[in-house]
């Protein structure tokens, strides 16, 4: 391990990388595209490196499990779609620990009943604010 002089040290910080993955059906039917967002904790400097680290993690998740990946009973492929955002964790001076907020999402629902449905995992329409 080589010694690093103080002037060479780069301020490494913790980021939440929002990695978007999309399911592509192998049967050619493009009736819908299931999409989900994985949030990875990455350590990087500068901020652009957090995006690169997230992309490497997303690309590592790609695949079809050697032909065994299914979605709703249909053969599929999991594709890395991109990085939606990276956010600096709450306190860059301290490493994340229990209770550290690492990221957040903001969206609007039409009424309080929709909030209840959302919490129960029922289908609702949201307006996502980034």
Attribute tags:
4-stranded antiparallel beta sheet, two-stranded antiparallel ribbon, 130 residues, alpha+beta, 18% helix, disordered N terminus
Structural notes for this entry:
The protein is an alpha+beta fold and 130 residues long. It has a domain at 10-89. The chain has helices spanning 47-61, 112-120, and strands at residues 13-25, 35-44, 70-71, 74-88, 106-108, 127-129. Strand 3 and strand 4 (74-88) form a beta hairpin.
Low-confidence stretches: 1-8
Helical region count? Answer: 2
Please provide the count of β strands. Answer: 6
Compute the average pLDDT.
Answer: 86
Radius of gyration: 19 Å
Structural classification? alpha+beta
Task: Estimate the global geometry from the Cα principal axes.
Answer: flat
Strand order of the largest sheet: 2-1-4-3
Helix proportion of residues, in percent?
Answer: 10-25%
Tell me the span between the first and last alpha carbons: 42 Å
Q: Biggest sheet: strands, sense, closure?
A: 4 strands, antiparallel
Instruction: Note the run of SSEs as H and E.
Output: EEHEEEHE
> Which band does the percent of strand residues land in?
35-45%
Summarize the structure.
This protein has 130 residues and is α+β, with helices and mostly antiparallel strands.
Tell me the layout of helices and strands:
Blueprint: E1 13-25, E2 35-44, H1 47-61, E3 70-71, E4 74-88, E5 106-108, H2 112-120, E6 127-129
Antiparallel strand pairs: 1-2, 1-4, 3-4, 5-6
């Amino acid at each position: 391990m080589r010694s690093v002089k103080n002037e060479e040290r780069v301020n490494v910080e913790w980021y939440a990388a929002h990695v978007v993955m999309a399911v592509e059906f192998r049967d050619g039917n493009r009736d819908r595209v299931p999409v989900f967002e994985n949030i990875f904790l990455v350590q990087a400097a500068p901020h652009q490196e957090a995006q690169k680290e997230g992309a490497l993690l997303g690309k590592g998740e790609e695949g079809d499990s050697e032909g065994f990946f299914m979605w709703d009973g249909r053969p599929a492929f999991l594709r890395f779609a991109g990085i939606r955002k990276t956010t600096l964790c709450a306190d860059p001076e301290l490493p994340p620990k229990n209770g550290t907020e690492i990221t957040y999402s903001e969206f609007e629902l039409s009424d309080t009943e929709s909030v209840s449905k959302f919490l129960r995992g029922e289908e609702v329409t949201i307006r996502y604010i980034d």
